[in-house]
Structures are given as structure tokens and as C-alpha cells.
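To the wet lab folks,

You asked to see what we're planning to order before we commit. Fair enough. Below is the target structure as C-alpha cells, and below that is the sequence we designed to fit it. If anything looks off to you, flag it before the synthesis order goes out.
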């Protein structure tokens, strides 16, 4: 086994690490205060080729592998949770769907501006009654002559409504199958189409700069050709894509956990009690040691899942293990980090209090930890 990164993967890591340190970390606190997504930073990421790493150059991408992309997500998330989440959602969901299932015209028209970072994409599956139970979606699409007419409401949709958001790919019911099961297809809905409106922008406990909105489709008419790939395969399409986004979310958790370790270690060395730095106390050392160990274990599983995807191997289990373990690691790290900071850990002037608010998202988004465990159990127990 070779655990070394390739030269290209190391270059991507160093590029993103430096970018994160110099361009993202300095504005993270301000983003938390203003809640404004930094378009300029996104544009710079695009010009550095960060937004489309795993897609071929002919589609505006970098022609590298998914492991490189996952490393980029980890490093950018280390700088700021909102920017990292916007990146991972755009790449692993709409771009991945377009690249894997879109026809050539769709890739040319929609993928290229996303891969170059000129635009950002969104993915809309969740609805008020369909969170963990994705099969409960109610949004319907009906074909009328040459147009799909879409009605329904999506909730909690990331990136939709940003000024550079070009599209959302949504899942909608298009018919019935045997035994009353729904037929679901995916549709490309361009921003600005009549009948497609943004609802409220949610107020969140963290990731304030991440745009998350309700989307309302009221007789929204899109051309017939805006259906994504094979209309019969909508469920398989989004399930496959969610496997990739699980690795992205897990990498995001690793990035956050690493930044929590970094600030906690620095604080422990600087803060003195009983006449010496608190890092000299074993209780603090053990917390830092556990953080480092769990972060490294998470990272290994994340990289393995990305490597398996690149090798064309099955990565269902590893992506699920990575998502659960990395998200729960990030939360444990944040708890330990605040504890290490003592009272200052509860004050806004230290970033650890922001991290503590950010990490809880990890265990809920893109399938809660409970649903991920159910998925593993169902597969192993053949339920
Ligand atoms: C900030 C944010 C951004 C998001 N971005 C997007 C996006 O871009 N696109 C998108 O489509 N969605 C998005 N989501 C939705 C997200 O994926 C869902 O919130 C998540 O899947 C959980 O669904 P829910 O919130 O409806 O919780 P529910 O499904 O109502 O779950 C509530 C609780 O019940 C538990 N539960 C439910 N069913 C079971 C079961 N069978 N067994 C055991 N426990 C169970 C859950 O684990 C959870 O603890 C976003 C959500 C947030 C908060």
C-alpha cells in the first residue's frame, strides 16, 4: 500500500492551504458577523482552478482526481466552514450530477461555468415533509408539449439565491411505478426562470455566510431538454451523487476539526495557570492527543473513500463510515477545544466559540448520523 500523495495532490494541498491561510482565515470572523458570502473569494478560487478540479479540462475543470478535490475541500473548510460547504455542495452535487449523467449539450452549457468558478450550483432534494425520508417528496413535474411544468417547494437548499448561482438541480415526481412507488426524475432549473422564486433565507446558528433558502416552484416551465439524463433513473442518480457528497462532507469535517486542533494547541501553549502553560497538564495533553488521533483516523477514511471512487471501486461503506466518524470527530474536537479554552472558549473573541457553533451541522446535513448508521446496518444485515 502506498499512502503517499502524488505530486499533483501535494500541489493542490499546498495551493489550497496557502489560499485558505491567506485569503479565507482573515475574513472568517467577518463572514460570521455579516453573513455575506464573499463572491470575490469565490472568483479567486475559480481563477486558481479550485472549483472544478476533478472534471476534464474540456469542461472547464482541472483534469485531476477526486482525491485532489477532497483535499481541496478539506483545506478550504479549514479556513471557513461557509466557503468550504459552498464549494463541496457545488462540486459534489450539481456538477457531479451534470458530469456523470448530463448529455453533452448540458455539460457544455451548465458544467463549464460552474467548473471555472464563474458560477455556483445548488441541489434541491429536501422538502418540508421529506428530510431523511427522501421518497416522500411532493414536488411534481408534468410534461406539457415541449415543457416540464414544475410545482412544489424545496427547503434548506444551499447556494440557491447567491448572485452567482446559475442553477439548481431538483428531484421531482414525474409519475407512478408499480406498487404505488413514485417515479422520480432530476431537472436543471436555471436561476431566473418564470415561476421559480426564492423563499426565505434561513437564519442559522453558524455558517452565517452560507446561503440556504427555500425554493418555490409555481407553474415553473422549463424546456423538455432540461431533464437530467435518463428520466427513469432519477433516484439512482441522486443516490449515487450523495455517496460522493458524503466524502465531501467528511472532508469538510476533517478541515474543521484540524482548525479546532490548531487553535486549541496554540492556546494551550500560551495560556498559563499555576505558573506554567496549561499544555504542561496531562489532562490538556490527553485532549489534544485524542483530537489529533481522531482527526488522522477520519482523514484516512476520507482519503480511502475518495481513492476508491477514483479507482472505480465501491465506496458506499467507506464514504458512510467517513461521514459519521469525521462529523462526530469534529464535534468531539470542538467540545474539547472549548474546554481547553476555559471561559474564553465561550467568548466571541476566540474562534473556538464559532467552531463550536459550526460543527453541529456536520452530523445533520446530507443525511443525519442516524440515517448513515441505518444505511450501513441495512446493507450489512441485508434488511
Ligand atoms: C444548513 C442546511 C443546508 C442544507 N442544504 C441542503 C441542500 O443543499 N439540498 C438539500 O436537498 N437538502 C439540504 N439540507 C437538508 C438536510 O439534508 C436535511 O436537513 C437532513 O437530511 C435531515 O432532514 P430533516 O432536517 O428533515 O430531519 P428529519 O428527517 O426530520 O430528522 C429528525 C431526526 O429524526 C431522525 N430520524 C429520521 N428518520 C429516522 C429513522 N428512520 N430512524 C432513526 N432516526 C430517524 C433524524 O436522524 C433526526 O435526528 C440542508 C439542511 C441544512 C440545515
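Sequence we intend to order:
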Amino acid at each position: 500500500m502506498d499512502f503517499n500523495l502524488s505530486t499533483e495532490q501535494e500541489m493542490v494541498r499546498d495551493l489550497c492551504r496557502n489560499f485558505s491561510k491567506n485569503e479565507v482565515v482573515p475574513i472568517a470572523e467577518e463572514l460570521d458577523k455579516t453573513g455575506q458570502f464573499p463572491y470575490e473569494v469565490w472568483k479567486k478560487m475559480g481563477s486558481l482552478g479550485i472549483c472544478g478540479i476533478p472534471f476534464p479540462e474540456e469542461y472547464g475543470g482541472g483534469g485531476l482526481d477526486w482525491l485532489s478535490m477532497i483535499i481541496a475541500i478539506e483545506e478550504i473548510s479549514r479556513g471557513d466552514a461557509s466557503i468550504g460547504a459552498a464549494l463541496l455542495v457545488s462540486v459534489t452535487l450539481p456538477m457531479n450530477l451534470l458530469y456523470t449523467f448530463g448529455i453533452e449539450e448540458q455539460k457544455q452549457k451548465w458544467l463549464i461555468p460552474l467548473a471555472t468558478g464563474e458560477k455556483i450550483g445548488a441541489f434541491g432534494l429536501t422538502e418540508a415533509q421529506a428530510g431523511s425520508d427522501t421518497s416522500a417528496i411532493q414536488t411534481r413535474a408534468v410534461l406539457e408539449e415541449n415543457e416540464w411544468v414544475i410545482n412544489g417547494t424545496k427547503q434548506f437548499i444551499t447556494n440557491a439565491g447567491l448572485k452567482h448561482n446559475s442553477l439548481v438541480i431538483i428531484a421531482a415526481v414525474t409519475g407512478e411505478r408499480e406498487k404505488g412507488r413514485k417515479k422520480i426524475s432530476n431537472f436543471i432549473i436555471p436561476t431566473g426562470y418564470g415561476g421559480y422564486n426564492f423563499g426565505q433565507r434561513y437564519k442559522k446558528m453558524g455558517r452565517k455566510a452560507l446561503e440556504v433558502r427555500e425554493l418555490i416552484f409555481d407553474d415553473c416551465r422549463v424546456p423538455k431538454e432540461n431533464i437530467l439524463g435518463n428520466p427513469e433513473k432519477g433516484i439512482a442518480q441522486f443516490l449515487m451523487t450523495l455517496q460522493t457528497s458524503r466524502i465531501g462532507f467528511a472532508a469538510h469535517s476533517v478541515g474543521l476539526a484540524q482548525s479546532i486542533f490548531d487553535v486549541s494547541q496554540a492556546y494551550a501553549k500560551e495560556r498559563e495557570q499555576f505558573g506554567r502553560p496549561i499544555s504542561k497538564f496531562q489532562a490538556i495533553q490527553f485532549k489534544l492527543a485524542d483530537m489529533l488521533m481522531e482527526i488522522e483516523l477520519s482523514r484516512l477514511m476520507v482519503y480511502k473513500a475518495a481513492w476508491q471512487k477514483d479507482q472505480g471501486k465501491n465506496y458506499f461503506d467507506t464514504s458512510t463510515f467517513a461521514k459519521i466518524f469525521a462529523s462526530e470527530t469534529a464535534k468531539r474536537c470542538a467540545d474539547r477545544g472549548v474546554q481547553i479554552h476555559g471561559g474564553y472558549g465561550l467568548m466571541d473573541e476566540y474562534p473556538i466559540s464559532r467552531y463550536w457553533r459550526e460543527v453541529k451541522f456536520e452530523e445533520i446535513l446530507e443525511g443525519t448520523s442516524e440515517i448513515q448508521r441505518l444505511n450501513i446496518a441495512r446493507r450489512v444485515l441485508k434488511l
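Structural context that might help your review: Residues 159 and 184 are 23 Å apart (CA to CA). The chain is about 50% helix and 15% strand.

Thanks,
Computational group
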